[in-house]
User: Fold these one by one.
Assistant:
Number 1:
Amino acid sequence: MKTIQIDLHRTNYRYQVKIGNRILSEVLTELLFNYTEKRIFVITNSTLHALYPEFSKTVIPKDIQAECLILPDGEQHKNLETVTQIIDFLVEKKANRQSIVIAFGGGVVGDISGFAASAFMRGISYVQIPTTLLSQVDSGIGGKTGINHKAGKNLIGAFKQPYQTIIDVSFLKTLPEREFIAGYAELIKHGIIRDPYLFQLLNQKNLQELKADEDLLIDSIFRSCEVKARVVEEDEMEASQRAILNFGHTFGHFLETYTNYQQLLHGEAVIIGMDFASWWSLQQGFLDKADFEIIHYHLCSLGISKTIPEVTKETFIRIVEYDKKFSREGIRFVGLTGIGQARIFDGVTADSLWDNLLTYIQSDALLKID
Ligand SMILES: NC(=O)c1ccc[n+]([C@@H]2O[C@H](COP(=O)([O-])OP(=O)(O)OC[C@H]3O[C@@H](n4cnc5c(N)ncnc54)[C@H](O)[C@@H]3O)[C@@H](O)[C@H]2O)c1
């Protein structure tokens, strides 16, 4: 089992991320050993419940009673009504300020449960048990919690760090292939922005080899979480450096919004977004051609390519400028100066990104426009 320690200086708070295969029962037993409340509040969804019906019986220590709330599956339920449902459940079951919420599921369950835990009685502890690759390397650590509003994704939220995060790779066995690739986007992103060794490690293997090699999977998730943990320690509230985690997200969010969240999973959009951001970095003269090609061919090997209907300059600019990463000074765009070296460029204009988009779609790009 591997452990990452996250130290947050702002609040003088620290917690651990445990990573391994089939570790959940052992880690939970240790975690709850001195827990006098003897009742935990498990939040999961219908898919996880169907796949792991014995979850509470098999991994939760015998002396602990698990109260379980099963949410409907899907991003469309990441909203205030579901938060109310969780709060009602906690009230009905007489949870108190010492109670612990266990979020068992992907990023959606983790984000909603974390947010509900941050609000209930002004904040109670929650443990993340992320079950998708995306949530294991990304949303399960770092303390961003939240829900969607009809005006935008993740518009309502709070910073609330978990009590502990337990990453058990055995859950990935049931994850659909498409979800695995979407999570892989964030895994490889951490290599591209900060850890050239991680990138190299993954670049030597294909996805099937990665899935089949438990040690490699644990090692790469560990390294990926290390990158995120160190960035979060440096800048918990995303005042500056944490923005490098948005590599690939400006263009990725544009694609998700433009296609109405109907065609691409978030990670798939990020794969194309990283390809575009690498192209942009090459065009600006920050990234050399050899490094661009290594990244580009790796991203191509993931099998995500997309054709979208023709987009006008006005629509592109409107969507990009509505993004959270846009301010009066322009876009805070994350580019590359090498593999493992991301840099934040402030004041990039939507106009200049549009010019790059025109050259990008004429190149050997992952995105085509009809
Ligand atoms: N808080 C953060 O820092 C942060 C970072 C990135 C993304 N997010 C959020 O995370 C969400 C996306 O997370 P996600 O990609 O995990 O999506 P998700 O939670 O919707 O999970 C994807 C699908 O996989 C299913 N699933 C989960 N675990 C499974 C397993 N082990 N086996 C089989 N199926 C399983 C889920 O039920 C769902 O149908 C978005 O809402 C996004 O905004 C948050």
Number 2:
Amino acid sequence: MSYFRSVIEAMEGYIPGEQPRNGEYIKLNTNENPYSPSPHVIQSLRDHLSSHRISLYPSPLGDGIRKKAAEIYGVPEDWIMIGNGSDEILNLIFRAFLGKGDVVMYLYPTYILYRTLALFQEAEYQEIPFTYDETLPMELIDRPAQLKVICNPNSPSGTFFPIPQMEKLLQVSDCPVVIDEAYVDFSRDNCLSLLKTYPNLLIPRSFSKSFSLAGMRIGILFAHPEIVHGLLKLKDSYNLSCLSQVAAMAALEDIDAMWENVRKIRETREWFTRAMRELSFTVRPSEANFVMVQKGGGNMRLLYEALKSRQILVRFFPEWPDLLRISIGTDLEMKTLLNALYSITGA
Ligand SMILES: Cc1ncc(COP(=O)(O)O)c(C=O)c1O
């Protein structure tokens, strides 16, 4: 006999990428940033620890971060909510807008957590096939739902929908529309400018990727104040630890350091994409800090395993065996990966 709700008992649960702790791998499987965060972040954390203030609860709403983010992104403070990673923000959104039997719609393949969160709510998830061009499928735009989610740039494809496509979706959807911008700093554009016009738009972002702070678990949401107000009712009072708040604040104070890391990653992404195509892999044009690679529709498990045995970890998804998702590391890491591929494939 199980004490769990039947839906929880039956589901598998989200399986995160492998997180080996011993540093023996070149780790290109969970889209972390290979570069350190700003030195100002490290110094601010040290200063905070030496001042003994960890005995106090942190600011419930992250007042300092909201103020600084408002200044940087040109969005009022009460249009901003902070989260324990953008995963927490997504979790709150699904809990807030979806009940049993409600419909959530998203493209597929995408971030599999959306499905997991829908299952928690006993909601119906409709997965619309991804078309890999720059046009959103009409079904996603036309069909009614209680929640629509687009990951832009998308994972695992890395591809990006131009903003007018997003606007088209927002214009006709009378439900909340989430545009998950976890990877947006690596892309050409973003949806913040649509926020004022569309009260149904929610934009969660992550500090785990461009800001090199995956370990601190920081996310930020931009949305109309009525939406933020509603979501705050669901949020844990002290969802973001004082150290995470210090890190987020310092990262925003030295945002140029983030942009410099992004510049390097984009450069690496470009030459690595070319090199992979020369090796006859299909690589979708990526606007994220990873690329999706395929080879003639073949199963990529053996290649994933061969790389792993050479201490290189990339992401293999059993659900999509014909692709690998490879995070962009340093130039040296990517050259090591290429050399491994030359030796595995005999190229
Ligand atoms: C599309 C997408 N959204 C959100 C997240 C969650 O990021 P975090 O909770 O680290 O901010 C991830 C993490 O990989 C992601 O790929």
